[in-house]
């Protein structure tokens, strides 16, 4: 099977959890639970922010962007992952694979951008509280949202489009239960150096740059907090950042662990790779609503209010 096969006719085979195929229906139970938690938690937060006028503030608008990207991230993997666990539906066409890969990467990059924007939001709120409302106007928040989507799309389109120029050899078996860029690239029998370079550039210039800027924001935030005179106000200023710090940690730690496992964890059993890869996309969508509901009084009140009104 040489390079005369057209890419559009290629069928890839996704993989569930290698070595544990017999237990797929059992493994699907925790994943279903995680998906239900992620989808209901983020939908609830979005609904609360839209319907409660008290939450119509920049900080919560950014949180609603975070919930939207988390919903997108969950939905991008849901169909193929549960398809494999429930129906052993492993086949995916080349174009569907590119489509899924694009959206997984897009929502990952958007999540990173939103977390950076939230760090900027906290910095402005703490260092310049009087000008906060004039700096972060509604129209500016909309512009930021549009910029986040455009940035992700421009950065990732070449990376995904370039996979079309490769030819794929005899093996079409992917190692994850969704399409993952390095995974697809490995199946090619053409030179993938350009693809690797473009992929790496896209990730460094988005997630890499964002993480450095988030760190920088926190250096400035801490500097500002330390210059506040009363310990009470210091504590109050810092407590508004706690949820965001949590969100940043649960996004970047699994992301970095996955890259490390890919680079250095060759000796680890195959199912370890798969489990990390499967949960890395589910941890932020599951945890973010929980962190924000627990740590942010206004969100907690709004969510309780909505749940009570449904019971009434």
From TrEMBL:
GO molecular function list: G protein-coupled receptor activity; olfactory receptor activity
Origin: domain of life: Eukaryota
One Pfam family this sequence matches: 7tm_4
Alphabetically ordered keywords of this record: Cell membrane, G-protein coupled receptor, Membrane, Olfaction, Receptor, Sensory transduction, Transducer, Transmembrane, Transmembrane helix
Biological process per Gene Ontology, one example term: cellular response to lipid
Entry GO CC: plasma membrane
Mode of membrane association: Multi-pass membrane protein
Domain G-protein coupled receptors family 1 profile intervals: 41-292
PROSITE patterns found in the cross-reference section: G_PROTEIN_RECEP_F1_1, G_PROTEIN_RECEP_F1_2
Broad class of where this protein is predominantly found: membrane
SUPFAM superfamilies membership: Family A G protein-coupled receptor-like (SSF81321)
Subcellular location as annotated: Cell membrane; Membrane
Listed transmembrane segments: 27-50, 62-87, 99-120, 141-163, 197-221, 242-264, 270-291
Similarity-based family: Belongs to the G-protein coupled receptor 1 family.
Identification of the protein by name: Olfactory receptor
The gene coding this protein: OR51C1P
């Amino acid at each position: 099977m040489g390079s005369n096969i057209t890419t559009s006719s290629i069928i890839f085979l996704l993989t569930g959890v290698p070595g544990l195929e017999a237990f797929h229906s059992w493994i699907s139970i925790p994943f279903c639970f995680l998906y239900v938690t992620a989808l209901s938690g983020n939908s609830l937060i979005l609904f609360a922010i839209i319907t409660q006028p008290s939450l119509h503030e920049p900080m919560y608008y950014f949180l609603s962007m975070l919930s939207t990207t988390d919903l997108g991230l969950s939905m991008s993997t849901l169909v193929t992952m549960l398809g494999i666990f429930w129906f052993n539906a492993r086949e995916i066409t080349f174009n569907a694979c590119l489509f899924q890969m694009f959206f997984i990467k897009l929502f990952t990059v958007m999540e990173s951008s939103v977390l950076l924007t939230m760090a900027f939001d906290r910095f402005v709120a703490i260092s310049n509280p009087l000008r906060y409302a004039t700096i972060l106007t509604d129209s500016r928040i909309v512009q930021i949202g549009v910029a986040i989507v455009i940035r992700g799309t421009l950065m990732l389109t070449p990376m995904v489009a370039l996979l079309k120029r490769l030819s794929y050899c005899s093996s079409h078996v992917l190692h994850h239960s969704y399409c993952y860029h390095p995974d697809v690239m490995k199946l090619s029998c053409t030179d993938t150096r350009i693809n690797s370079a473009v992929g790496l550039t896209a990730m460094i210039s988005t997630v890499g740059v964002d993480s450095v800027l988030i760190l920088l924001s926190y250096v400035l935030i801490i500097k500002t907090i330390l210059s506040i005179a009363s310990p009470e106000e210091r504590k109050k200023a810092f407590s508004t950042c706690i949820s965001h710090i949590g969100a940043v940690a649960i996004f970047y730690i699994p992301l970095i662990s996955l890259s490390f496992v890919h680079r250095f964890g060759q000796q680890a059993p195959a199912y370890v790779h798969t489990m990390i890869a499967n949960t890395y996309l589910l941890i932020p969508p599951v945890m973010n609503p929980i962190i924000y509901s627990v740590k942010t009084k206004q969100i907690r009140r709004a969510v309780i209010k909505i749940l009570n009104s449904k019971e009434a």
